Amino acid sequence: MRHFLLCLLLLAVLSVAGPAVAAAPHDDWDGWRMTRFLTLDATSGLPHATTTSIVQGSDGLMWIGTRGGLARYDGQRLKVFRQASLDRTSLPDNYIRALHALPHGGMLVGTNVGGAVRFDPVSNTFVALQGAAGVGMGTRILAISSDGQGGALIASDHGVFRYDARRNRVVSLVAPGGELSEGAFTVHRDADGTIYAGGDQGLFVRGPHDRGFSHVATPPFGDVWAIQRGAQGRLWIGTGSHGIFVQLRDGRFVQPRVLAGDAPLIGHRTIRAFAREGDGTLWAATDGMGVLRIRIDRGLSVDAMRNIPANHASLAGDTVRDVTIDRTGRLWAATDVGASQTDPTLDSIFTVTNAMPDPRRSLGDRNVRGLMVDSRDRIWVGLSNGMIDRIDRAAGTVRHFRLTGRHAGQDVKAFLELPGGTVLVGARGIVAIDPTTLAERSIAVPLPDDLPVIALARSGDLLLIGTYKGLFTWDARTRQLRHYRHVDGDATTIANNEVINIVDMGDGHPWIATPGGLSRFDPATGRFAVYRNDPADPTSLPQNYTGSIVQSAGALWVGTYGGVARGTASPHGLRFRAITEAEGLSNDNVAAVLADRHGRVWTTGASGISVVDPQGRRVRVVSQRDGLPSDAYNQRVAAMTRDGDLLFGGTGGLLVLRPDRMLAARPTGSLTLAPTDIEQDGRDLPFSPMAGQRAIRVDGHALRVAFALTDYAAPQEIRYRYRLVGFDTDWVGLPESVPATAIYTNLPGGDYVLELQAHIPGVHPRVVTTAIDMVVARAWHERWYVRLAMVLIALGAVFGIVQLRTMMLRQRTRALERTIEQRTGELRAANVTLSQLASTDPLTGLANRRTLLARLEAAREAAMRSGRGYAVAMLDIDHFKRVNDTYGHHTGDLVVQAVAARIAGGVRAVDCVARYGGEELAILFVDSGLSEAGATTERLRQAVARAVTEVDGAHIQVTLSAGVAAATGDEPPAAVLHRADLAMYRAKRAGRNRIELADDRDVTERIGA
User: Fold this and answer.
1) Helix (H) or strand (E) holding 934
2) Are 853 and 875 in contact (CB under 8 A)?
3) How far apart are CA 981 and CA 277, in angstroms?
4) Catalytic annotation on 919?
5) pTM
6) How does DSSP classify residue 715?
C-alpha cells in the first residue's frame, strides 16, 4: 500500500511539476521495436572484455576504460594505453574505474589502485595530479564528475575531492574524520554549486557556502552508487540493492513500485550510473539487469534493454558499469563483455524476429516467405514448413499455427483475403483459414498433383493461381478451372510457366511476373501481352526475371534482376526506363518493390533498400546509420499497414520501415573531422588542435596521419579521402574497410594545407570537410644556393656522360635491332603453334573439348542477356570399334577425320563443332531451339550415312547416333551436355543411325543421377 501511494504521488508530481508535456500519439508498434546495438569487445581490439567506464572527450573521441587498460576509439581504430613498469608517463594501473573529459582534449583517469592521473594531449602522456598525495586522495577512484568550472569532483576511497584544472591541484572537500572520510562511491554537482555525494552510509549534501557535507534524511535505502539531476528539478538516486529513489522539489523522497529493489526490472541489483538525454529520458546502468530506460513524457514508464543470447544485435551483457550519451544522442554502455552503443531514438526502421525481448512478440522463424495485411490491419506472415504467424499489434501478440497434412512441409508464400474475411493460403494447393478461429479447411479447386501455389490474386470473379507449371484460373460460379502455359513460338502465351507474382490493378487485366518476362493477361480471350528485354531496344525491360509489380504516379514499376523498371504508357504499349546501380540504386537484383502513400517507390535487394521519387529522378539509399540491419531482406514479399508502414520479408525476419519518419530530417549533433593519431618515422607525434596547436609540424619523412569523423552510427559506411594542397594534384580516395590514413614519404619542405573529407551515406547524405595547416621543415639540400651548385655540377657531368653514352648506344642499337628482328620472327611462329595446340584437336582440326566448354558458357551468358536459347548435339560413330579392329587404328583416324570434315561443312559459321573424345563429336547451335537443331543434326546424319570413305582401296561406310538438347533458363552447360548425351545413348539403344531429342525423361534421369 505504501509503495502504491508513493507511486501515485510521483505520477501526480510528474504531471504537474514544470511545463506541461504534450502527450505523445499512440504508436501501435510500441513494445515491438528492439534496439540494435553495435559492440566493441576484445576481438575488436579492446585491452580487456570487461569495460568499466565510458565517456566522450571534448574532441569527440570515445574513451573506454577496462580492467586491462584504457582505449580511445575514433570509429575506425582503437588506440590502447596500458601501464608500463619503467615509464612514469604511462598509466599507473590498468584497471580503469572512472573517466571524465576535460576541456582542450584532456582526460581525467581514475584507477583501481593507482589513483587518478590526467592525460595530456599535447605530450600524449599521463601526468600525475599535483597535490594529490598531500591531501591523501587515495588510490581507488570510484567516480569523477564535473565541478562546473572546467575541473572535476572525485569520489575515492578517502572521500570527496576537487580537481582545480586551472591550478592543476587537488583539494579535499571532506573534513578529517567526517562521515565520508572513509570513502565515497559517487559525486554530483548541481548548477547552483550544491554537491551531492553517495557512500555506504547513504546520501550527503554540501551547499555552495558550506564547509563540509551533511547527511540527508532519507528513507532507509542504504548505500548510494549513482546520483543524477533530472527534468523539472527531480534528483534521482541509485542504490546498492534498494532500487531507485526520486527526491521531489519539495525535498520528499518517493519510489515508484516499478523502481523498487524487489521489482522485476531491478532484482536488488546495484544501480551503477545514470545518463540523461535532452528530452529528460533517464538511462540507468544496473549490475546484472542491463540498462533501464526511464521516461516521463507520458507519465512514468520503465523498460529494460538486456542481452538476448539468440540476438547478436542486443546489449552485449547485462552487467553494466557505466552509461553515457554522446553528442549525437547515441547511448553507450560499458558492459562486462564489451562496450555497446545504439541510437535509442531511432524508430523509423526495425525488425521483428524470432528472438524478441518479449517472447509473445517473437516470430516462429526468421525466414519470412510471404506477407499480407488483412482488412483488420493484422499482419499474416508466411514461413517455412507450413508455418504461419499472425501479428496483432493492438493486442501485442503473435499467434503461431502450422498447416497440416500435405501442406506441413511447404513454404508459405501466398495469401489472399476474400471479401468475407476468409484468408486463402498457398501451400500444396490452396487452404482456407478462418480469421477468427484460425481453423483450416481445403477448398474445392482441383489443382493437379498437389502443385505448390506461389501466388494468389482475384480479378473480378476469377481466382488467379500462380504455380511453377503455369497460371490457373478458377471461376467459383461455373466451377471451371483453366490452365495457361507458355508455348514456344506463340507470343500470345504467358512469358514463362513459373508465376512469381500476380497483381490486379482493378482494370480486369492482371499483370503477371515470371522469370521469362512480364505478361498482361486478358481473361476474356485467354491471351497474354508479353514484355521482355530486347538488347536493341532501350525502352524494353532491363531484364526478363521479374518479381514485384506496383503502380505509382501513373507509372508501372517492376522489380527485375536488372534494376527497377518504370513503365509509362505510349501508343505502342509500355515503354520502360531502367533505374539501376548507375543511378544510385543499392542493388540491381531487386527483390521487392512497394509504393508508400506519397507515391515514393521503395525497393529491397540483397545489399540494401532504396527509395525512388515518384518521377524516378532521385534515388536515395537507406544505410546502416539510418537503422538498416545487416540481415538480408531479399525475398520478393512486401506489404503496407493501414497507417502507411512498409513491411518487407527476408531471411532476417520482418522488417518494418516507416517512410515518413525515415525521410524526416533528424538532428545529427556536432561532428568533428580531425586527425586522431600522427606518426613520423614510426614515433607518435602529439597533436591537439583543442590545446592550441594550429599546425602539424614535421620534417616530411615517413609521415602517417590517421583521421576520422566522430560519427559512430555506422563508421564502416563512411567514405574518406584527402589531399595535400601544394603537393597532391587530386583527392586521394581510400578503399572500404581501410582506416582513414594519409601517408606521405619525403615531402619537400614548405607550407601545405591538409584537406580531409568524409562522405556520410544514407537518406540524408552529408559531406564534412576540414583543413589543417602542415609545415614541413626544409632540409639542408633544399637551400637555394646548394641546389644551384648541385645543378651546375650535374650539368657538367651530364654533358660528358651524354657524349660517351651516345657513342656506345649507337653501337649497341645496331646489334640489338638485328637480334630483335630474328627473335620477333621466332616468337610469332611459336605463338601461332601454341594457339592452335591450345584450342583445336590435332587429329580433326576441330575445336577441342576445352574450347567447346568455353563457347557453351559464353552461349549461356548471351542467352540470359538476350532471352534467346541455344542447343547442343552429341554424335557418336556407330560400331567404330569394328572399323579399328578390321582396318586398323590408322584407318579409323582417317574415318574420324572424314566424318568431322562433313559435319563441320554442314553447319553455320556461328556454330561450333568439336571433337568431344574418341569417335564422339559435339555441336553447339547458337540462337537455336530444339526443333531447328534437331533438323540440322538429322540432315548431317543422313549425309554421313550416304558418304563412303576410301582408304587404301577399302570402301568404308559409317553411320551416326545423335542426341539433341536445348538449354532451359539458366541451366548450366554441363547439364545441357549431359541431357544431350542421355538422348544419344537412347538413340543407340533404339537401333543406332538415328537421332533423339532430349525430353522430360532426360531431366528426370539427370536429377536422379
Assistant:
1) helix 930-946
2) no
3) 72
4) yes
5) 0.74
6) G
